[in-house]
Amino acid sequence: MGRANYDYEGETVLVTGGSSGIGREIATGFAEAGAAIVVADVREEPRDHGEATPTHEVVRERGGDAAFVGTDVSDPEQVEAAVDAAREFGGVDVMVNNAGVHVTESIRSVDPETFDRVHAVNVRGTFFGCQAAANDMIDRGAGGVVLNMASISSTGAKPRQVTYESTKGAVRMITLSATVELAEHDVRVNAIAPGRIATEFGPLNAEETERSGGEGLKPIPAGRAGRPEDVAGAALYLACEDADYVTGELLYVDGGYSAI
Question: Domain 12-196+228-251 belongs to what topology?
Fold first, then answer.
């Protein structure tokens, strides 16, 4: 099968949680397509096994433009600061609200502090990321694309995942509501729903999946866990001009997991 060749020359992509995992792959994928990259994360160093060079430095080493902005996405002022920093490259054209945290715990025992922390990052971070990016795009008269990181947990439940799943359900609705409001301003909003992805943050083997509350016990039709580059490919498509009429979508990247 053929491969798509994307051209993002002259565009700026801001990726929250871009230092590691899926966010790192998305950032480097857009950079390889010519985009300037702003990595907004709480830490500069990657957590990926075998990786030591920060994402923005990798982009620069490969000849691209990139910057790092220390950002706690639960703080709207820090999110706005990251969007402001993108003005150095002309302003945000694509906003990827990727930063997120996960917790596995029963509804019977999760404490308010844990619940609030997960919602602060996953929901507040996404909501105010949408807000800051949309305001920047509209104020510049540029339009643009917002991509939110949802999950198969946006629409499906598993044991001991209620805190996380409640945030991803919220991300789905933020995406839909923002779509309706922002379409007239030429701002498209979509969400990506990864399944089990092989990163430092996701359980992959049978023992770990059982401990995690059942995720992965249902077979994956594709016969493998996903890779970060699978998610990056979806992001590159959703942000491109070929997807100009695609907005308000939840795109599953799960190897068919949600189909059975």
Answer: Rossmann fold (3.40.50)
